[in-house]
Request: fold
Amino acid sequence: MRTRMWKLSLYLFIVGFILNMLGIVSHVVVSSFAKRWFGGLLPPAYTTDWFAYAWKNFDLGQVLGITLLIVVVVVFLALAIGFPAAYILARRSFRFKSAILLLYFLPLVIPQMTYGIPLATTLYRYGVGGSIVGVILAVLVPMVPLAVFVLMPFFEQISVNLEWSGSMLGASRAQIFRRILFPLMIPGILTAGVLVLVNTISNFELAFLLGGGGSQTLVVALFYNMFAGGVRPVYSIDAMAVIYMVMVMTLLLIALRFVRPTQMVFKLDK
Amino acid sequence: MRAVANDEKNEFDALAFFCLLPSLLYVLCMFVYPFLYGVYLSLQPQKIDGFSFANYLAFFSDPYQYGTIWITFSLAIPTTIVVLLLALWLAYGMRRGIFMERTVTTILIMPISLGVILLSEGILGFYGSQGWFNQVLIGLGIIKEPFILTHNYAGVMLALFMQQFPFCFLMLLGYISGIDPSLERSARMLGATPSIVFRRVMLPLIAPGLAIAFALVFVMSFAVFPSAIMLGQPAGTTRTISIAAYQKAFEQYDMSAASAIAVVMGLCQLAALLVIILFRRRLSPAATMGVGKR
Reply:
């Protein structure tokens, strides 16, 4: 009896949390389609005008273009820098390996606000703050380690014997890499790419500290417009939020084809 | 064949060096160097030549500034404890799987991937005084006046909870479902009640993971920034330390003082981590991991 009550309360809590999540998300969606909405369970009249309004007034075309550019470059660079490092860290053992692993772990556990401020100071001093390059450089700081840690277990799954057989049959290092490792690593590259992608799009702190007028990503633009609350109709801001949400949710659905939900957070048993 | 005779294998060659170099350089230049530069800069105040602790003295002599430490702790500690207890309860209950687990976990990670900005905007609408939450409660006759849950301390707590709970829950779920289920079964067979199994068998095994989860959630909550602005009173009761650092850097353009505040913020987080690490030493190590579900 007590166990059953306990299980029941568990399910009630889960249902409550899910209802709360759905409420939060659908409130934004409903509001973006509302003509006017003061109190009342649902708005009295609906319109799609706010999307056109948001598109025009918030320069969404340009903002989306910048976001896309930043995301593509970050994903590419994070994979390019992380891939060889993950290979070595998965395959070799050497003296300072645990120190290097700890060093790569730090940008993931230290909050971005804590290292973002000194990082922004440094990048502004070298004149890349407030530009697209600055945002890319800053966002890569947690993304390179993320790519390394996601790729490592995929390398560990590939047997070393395959590399040895390859080299015995006369393949060069480049050939082993291109013909054996790379094809076997495609699931790993997709997983890491998708995780870096989702995290870059929803990254706020670093993109906010480094982004200037012409280098605001979608989230940062969203924040500035909300912060200036009252100047713009709340419905148009919600319309912008819905555009952002649709983007992230699409990516999340794609991502979940490759990754388990538990892979989106750290593993504790390291 | 490579000699594997001694335990300390050293397989560091030219290939390893060149493969590691780009990422290592990146982390050193963009993470370690800015940190050190920040510390150096914080010791060189704008108006004074040479080294001085003036920034730190200014921070700790102005109640408006040093008060942010207390505000941040009073947000981060209760949030962390609530998140951790609820996540432990839920993860423990779900350790052998539940109905529609994948769907449930997918919905749980939504707040992580949607990001804090969208979450805050949704909370503003949903939990606002005109929002659905209050309308339903009033409609059901549970309350007369709406709960004020936004633009105050409670709003920031709410946002922090939504952000940190899924994160903490998924970490603990992974950890707990990795504990060998036969331990629990043996204890049950020997006559232990479920509560004794939890207290005497499972909790000691979970404790190390719990300690790390506590540290991670606390450190993340301590840096709360956008939700403290959007859902709180950024000039008053929820002026957290990261807001203080941001204002110095980007509103008063005093990078030196901002770096000093960032250093203080980092030290507070470090102190919390050290407490957890020391505490964790006293916990028994989990020797039976990795046989369970995952």
